[in-house]
Amino acid sequence: MKRSILFVYRYRIPIYYAAGVLLIALLVAGKLGFRGTIPLETELAIGALVTLAVCAILSFTVPTMLPVEDTQTVASPVRGRWLGMNSPQTKVPSHGVRAYGQAYAIDLCFEPEGATRPDFGGRMPARSPNEYPAFGEPVYAMIDGVVTRSSDWRRDHLARSNWFGFIYMMIEGMIREIGGPGFIVGNHIVIRRADGVHALVAHLQRGSALVKTGDQVVTGQQIGRCGNSGNTTEPHVHAQLMDRASTWTGQGIPMKFARITLDETPEQVDSLPSDDQHMEA
Length: 281
What we know:
Elements: H1 2-10, H2 12-29, H3 40-61, E1 72-74, E2 81-85, E3 106-110, E4 126-127, E5 138-140, E6 145-151, E7 159-160, H4 163-178, H5 182-185, E8 188-192, E9 198-202, E10 216-217, E11 222-225, E12 237-242, E13 252-253, E14 255-262, E15 269-271, E16 278-280
Parallel strand pairs: 1-14
Antiparallel strand pairs: 2-3, 2-16, 3-12, 4-7, 5-11, 6-8, 6-10, 8-9, 9-12, 12-13, 14-15, 14-16
Protein backbone atom coordinates (compact mmCIF):
# COMPACT_ATOMS: atom_id res chain seq x y z
CA MET A 1 0.00 0.00 0.00
CA LYS A 2 2.78 2.41 0.95
CA ARG A 3 4.62 1.76 -2.32
CA SER A 4 1.44 2.50 -4.28
CA ILE A 5 0.91 5.77 -2.41
CA LEU A 6 4.52 6.83 -3.00
CA PHE A 7 4.19 5.93 -6.68
CA VAL A 8 1.10 8.11 -7.09
CA TYR A 9 2.80 10.88 -5.09
CA ARG A 10 5.81 10.88 -7.42
CA TYR A 11 3.57 11.27 -10.46
CA ARG A 12 1.09 13.63 -8.81
CA ILE A 13 2.18 16.67 -10.83
CA PRO A 14 1.53 15.19 -14.32
CA ILE A 15 -1.66 13.57 -12.97
CA TYR A 16 -2.71 16.92 -11.52
CA TYR A 17 -2.04 18.65 -14.85
CA ALA A 18 -3.94 16.02 -16.81
CA ALA A 19 -6.97 16.30 -14.53
CA GLY A 20 -6.82 20.09 -14.68
CA VAL A 21 -6.60 20.13 -18.47
CA LEU A 22 -9.57 17.77 -18.70
CA LEU A 23 -11.63 19.91 -16.34
CA ILE A 24 -10.81 23.13 -18.21
CA ALA A 25 -11.62 21.49 -21.53
CA LEU A 26 -15.02 20.42 -20.23
CA LEU A 27 -15.71 23.88 -18.83
CA VAL A 28 -14.74 25.56 -22.07
CA ALA A 29 -16.93 23.17 -24.01
CA GLY A 30 -19.83 24.21 -21.80
CA LYS A 31 -20.94 20.64 -21.15
CA LEU A 32 -21.02 20.56 -17.36
CA GLY A 33 -24.67 20.01 -16.45
CA PHE A 34 -26.83 17.33 -14.91
CA ARG A 35 -29.44 16.19 -17.41
CA GLY A 36 -31.59 13.37 -16.07
CA THR A 37 -29.10 10.53 -15.89
CA ILE A 38 -25.55 11.67 -15.29
CA PRO A 39 -23.91 12.26 -18.71
CA LEU A 40 -20.37 11.15 -19.52
CA GLU A 41 -19.12 14.75 -19.41
CA THR A 42 -20.27 15.18 -15.83
CA GLU A 43 -18.77 11.84 -14.79
CA LEU A 44 -15.46 12.95 -16.26
CA ALA A 45 -15.70 16.29 -14.45
CA ILE A 46 -16.41 14.60 -11.12
CA GLY A 47 -13.49 12.23 -11.73
CA ALA A 48 -11.18 15.17 -12.51
CA LEU A 49 -12.25 17.03 -9.36
CA VAL A 50 -11.72 13.95 -7.19
CA THR A 51 -8.29 13.43 -8.78
CA LEU A 52 -7.32 17.04 -8.06
CA ALA A 53 -8.46 16.67 -4.46
CA VAL A 54 -6.50 13.42 -4.00
CA CYS A 55 -3.33 14.99 -5.45
CA ALA A 56 -3.71 17.98 -3.11
CA ILE A 57 -4.19 15.70 -0.09
CA LEU A 58 -1.14 13.61 -1.05
CA SER A 59 0.98 16.77 -1.32
CA PHE A 60 0.35 17.51 2.35
CA THR A 61 0.28 14.01 3.84
CA VAL A 62 2.89 11.93 2.01
CA PRO A 63 6.08 13.95 2.75
CA THR A 64 6.23 12.38 6.23
CA MET A 65 6.43 8.96 4.52
CA LEU A 66 9.27 9.85 2.17
CA PRO A 67 12.64 8.15 2.77
CA VAL A 68 15.37 10.47 4.02
CA GLU A 69 18.10 10.77 1.38
CA ASP A 70 21.75 11.20 2.31
CA THR A 71 23.06 14.74 1.94
CA GLN A 72 25.25 15.04 -1.15
CA THR A 73 28.33 17.27 -1.21
CA VAL A 74 28.66 19.00 -4.57
CA ALA A 75 30.57 21.92 -6.02
CA SER A 76 29.05 25.38 -5.92
CA PRO A 77 27.48 26.38 -9.25
CA VAL A 78 28.79 29.93 -8.83
CA ARG A 79 32.00 31.68 -7.80
CA GLY A 80 32.48 34.80 -5.78
CA ARG A 81 30.28 36.36 -3.08
CA TRP A 82 26.64 35.27 -3.30
CA LEU A 83 23.64 35.77 -1.03
CA GLY A 84 21.53 32.75 -0.04
CA MET A 85 17.76 32.98 -0.46
CA ASN A 86 15.00 30.38 -0.08
CA SER A 87 17.58 28.11 1.51
CA PRO A 88 16.99 24.62 2.93
CA GLN A 89 19.29 25.66 5.76
CA THR A 90 16.41 27.88 6.88
CA LYS A 91 13.40 25.70 6.08
CA VAL A 92 12.31 22.59 4.16
CA PRO A 93 10.76 22.64 1.65
CA SER A 94 12.89 25.67 0.89
CA HIS A 95 10.56 27.10 -1.74
CA GLY A 96 7.36 26.26 0.10
CA VAL A 97 6.55 23.22 -2.05
CA ARG A 98 8.16 19.91 -2.97
CA ALA A 99 6.95 20.03 -6.58
CA TYR A 100 9.50 20.03 -9.42
CA GLY A 101 12.13 18.37 -7.20
CA GLN A 102 12.86 21.61 -5.35
CA ALA A 103 12.38 20.54 -1.71
CA TYR A 104 16.06 21.27 -0.98
CA ALA A 105 16.73 23.87 -3.68
CA ILE A 106 18.52 27.15 -3.04
CA ASP A 107 18.52 30.54 -4.77
CA LEU A 108 21.74 32.54 -5.04
CA CYS A 109 22.03 36.28 -5.75
CA PHE A 110 25.39 37.82 -6.65
CA GLU A 111 26.58 40.55 -4.29
CA PRO A 112 30.27 41.16 -4.98
CA GLU A 113 32.24 43.56 -2.81
CA GLY A 114 32.08 47.07 -4.21
CA ALA A 115 29.07 46.42 -6.47
CA THR A 116 25.48 47.49 -5.89
CA ARG A 117 22.52 45.15 -6.20
CA PRO A 118 19.29 47.17 -6.61
CA ASP A 119 17.11 47.15 -3.52
CA PHE A 120 13.58 45.81 -3.67
CA GLY A 121 11.09 48.69 -3.54
CA GLY A 122 10.84 52.16 -4.99
CA ARG A 123 8.61 53.58 -7.70
CA MET A 124 9.64 51.37 -10.61
CA PRO A 125 7.85 47.98 -10.72
CA ALA A 126 10.39 46.58 -13.17
CA ARG A 127 14.08 46.99 -13.97
CA SER A 128 16.39 45.78 -16.70
CA PRO A 129 18.16 42.57 -15.65
CA ASN A 130 21.41 44.24 -16.70
CA GLU A 131 21.19 46.41 -13.57
CA TYR A 132 21.85 43.34 -11.41
CA PRO A 133 25.43 42.10 -10.97
CA ALA A 134 24.32 38.45 -11.22
CA PHE A 135 23.12 38.84 -14.80
CA GLY A 136 25.59 37.15 -17.14
CA GLU A 137 27.75 35.63 -14.40
CA PRO A 138 29.22 32.20 -15.24
CA VAL A 139 27.43 29.10 -13.95
CA TYR A 140 29.35 25.87 -13.36
CA ALA A 141 28.60 22.14 -13.20
CA MET A 142 28.03 20.93 -9.64
CA ILE A 143 28.84 17.30 -10.48
CA ASP A 144 30.54 15.09 -13.05
CA GLY A 145 28.11 13.45 -15.43
CA VAL A 146 26.09 13.49 -18.62
CA VAL A 147 23.83 16.35 -19.67
CA THR A 148 20.25 15.08 -19.85
CA ARG A 149 18.59 18.43 -20.47
CA SER A 150 19.83 21.75 -21.87
CA SER A 151 17.34 24.51 -22.60
CA ASP A 152 18.19 28.16 -23.26
CA TRP A 153 15.56 29.50 -25.68
CA ARG A 154 13.37 31.37 -23.20
CA ARG A 155 13.69 35.14 -22.94
CA ASP A 156 15.17 37.06 -20.02
CA HIS A 157 12.36 39.27 -18.73
CA LEU A 158 12.47 42.43 -16.65
CA ALA A 159 13.19 42.08 -12.94
CA ARG A 160 10.22 42.69 -10.62
CA SER A 161 11.55 45.40 -8.35
CA ASN A 162 8.65 46.43 -6.06
CA TRP A 163 5.41 45.00 -4.68
CA PHE A 164 3.44 45.89 -7.81
CA GLY A 165 6.00 44.00 -9.87
CA PHE A 166 5.93 41.12 -7.40
CA ILE A 167 2.12 40.83 -7.60
CA TYR A 168 2.39 40.86 -11.38
CA MET A 169 4.97 38.04 -11.14
CA MET A 170 2.62 35.97 -8.96
CA ILE A 171 -0.20 36.34 -11.49
CA GLU A 172 2.21 35.60 -14.33
CA GLY A 173 3.45 32.56 -12.40
CA MET A 174 -0.04 31.07 -12.35
CA ILE A 175 -0.11 31.34 -16.13
CA ARG A 176 3.38 29.87 -16.39
CA GLU A 177 2.21 26.88 -14.36
CA ILE A 178 -0.13 25.98 -17.22
CA GLY A 179 2.89 25.47 -19.46
CA GLY A 180 4.56 23.07 -17.03
CA PRO A 181 7.76 23.22 -14.97
CA GLY A 182 9.91 24.36 -17.89
CA PHE A 183 8.17 27.73 -17.82
CA ILE A 184 8.79 27.98 -14.05
CA VAL A 185 12.49 27.11 -13.97
CA GLY A 186 13.15 28.90 -17.26
CA ASN A 187 16.34 28.11 -19.12
CA HIS A 188 18.02 25.23 -17.32
CA ILE A 189 20.56 22.42 -17.50
CA VAL A 190 20.30 19.00 -15.86
CA ILE A 191 23.31 16.72 -15.36
CA ARG A 192 23.06 13.04 -14.38
CA ARG A 193 25.82 11.54 -12.22
CA ALA A 194 26.72 7.85 -12.53
CA ASP A 195 24.86 7.01 -9.29
CA GLY A 196 21.59 8.51 -10.53
CA VAL A 197 21.80 11.87 -8.76
CA HIS A 198 20.70 14.73 -11.02
CA ALA A 199 21.86 18.33 -10.63
CA LEU A 200 19.78 21.18 -12.02
CA VAL A 201 20.69 24.85 -12.42
CA ALA A 202 17.93 27.17 -13.55
CA HIS A 203 16.97 30.71 -14.65
CA LEU A 204 19.91 30.80 -17.05
CA GLN A 205 20.50 33.55 -19.59
CA ARG A 206 18.96 33.10 -23.00
CA GLY A 207 21.41 31.56 -25.47
CA SER A 208 24.08 31.00 -22.80
CA ALA A 209 24.13 27.18 -22.59
CA LEU A 210 27.60 25.88 -23.40
CA VAL A 211 26.60 22.21 -23.33
CA LYS A 212 23.96 20.11 -25.06
CA THR A 213 22.09 16.92 -24.23
CA GLY A 214 24.47 13.96 -24.23
CA ASP A 215 27.62 15.95 -23.46
CA GLN A 216 29.95 14.64 -20.76
CA VAL A 217 30.88 17.35 -18.24
CA VAL A 218 33.16 17.57 -15.22
CA THR A 219 32.69 19.33 -11.91
CA GLY A 220 33.56 23.02 -12.15
CA GLN A 221 33.14 23.23 -15.93
CA GLN A 222 31.30 26.34 -17.07
CA ILE A 223 27.96 25.31 -18.56
CA GLY A 224 26.06 28.60 -18.91
CA ARG A 225 25.41 32.06 -17.49
CA CYS A 226 23.03 33.48 -14.90
CA GLY A 227 19.91 35.00 -16.42
CA ASN A 228 16.40 36.06 -15.55
CA SER A 229 14.26 33.49 -17.35
CA GLY A 230 11.29 31.66 -15.88
CA ASN A 231 9.46 32.60 -12.69
CA THR A 232 11.91 35.07 -11.11
CA THR A 233 11.93 38.44 -9.40
CA GLU A 234 15.55 39.18 -10.35
CA PRO A 235 18.58 37.51 -11.95
CA HIS A 236 19.78 34.65 -9.73
CA VAL A 237 20.88 31.03 -9.90
CA HIS A 238 18.51 28.32 -8.70
CA ALA A 239 20.30 25.07 -7.84
CA GLN A 240 18.94 21.70 -6.73
CA LEU A 241 19.57 17.96 -6.70
CA MET A 242 16.89 15.40 -7.53
CA ASP A 243 16.54 11.66 -8.10
CA ARG A 244 15.18 11.87 -11.64
CA ALA A 245 16.07 13.82 -14.76
CA SER A 246 12.55 15.23 -15.06
CA THR A 247 11.24 18.04 -12.89
CA TRP A 248 7.78 16.53 -13.45
CA THR A 249 8.58 13.46 -11.31
CA GLY A 250 11.89 14.12 -9.54
CA GLN A 251 12.12 14.22 -5.74
CA GLY A 252 14.55 16.61 -4.10
CA ILE A 253 17.82 15.42 -2.54
CA PRO A 254 19.59 17.36 0.27
CA MET A 255 22.90 18.93 -0.72
CA LYS A 256 25.73 21.11 0.52
CA PHE A 257 28.45 23.01 -1.33
CA ALA A 258 32.06 21.93 -0.85
CA ARG A 259 34.67 24.30 0.53
CA ILE A 260 32.76 27.54 0.83
CA THR A 261 33.09 30.30 3.43
CA LEU A 262 30.07 31.85 5.14
CA ASP A 263 29.74 35.56 5.93
CA GLU A 264 33.10 36.86 7.09
CA THR A 265 34.34 33.58 8.56
CA PRO A 266 37.56 32.56 6.75
CA GLU A 267 37.25 28.84 7.55
CA GLN A 268 36.11 26.71 4.61
CA VAL A 269 33.14 24.42 5.29
CA ASP A 270 30.87 22.04 3.40
CA SER A 271 27.52 23.73 3.83
CA LEU A 272 24.93 26.07 2.34
CA PRO A 273 24.21 29.69 3.21
CA SER A 274 21.02 30.33 5.15
CA ASP A 275 18.54 32.98 4.04
CA ASP A 276 20.24 36.41 3.85
CA GLN A 277 23.66 34.88 4.54
CA HIS A 278 26.59 35.41 2.21
CA MET A 279 28.85 32.68 0.93
CA GLU A 280 32.14 32.89 -0.91
CA ALA A 281 32.91 30.12 -3.39
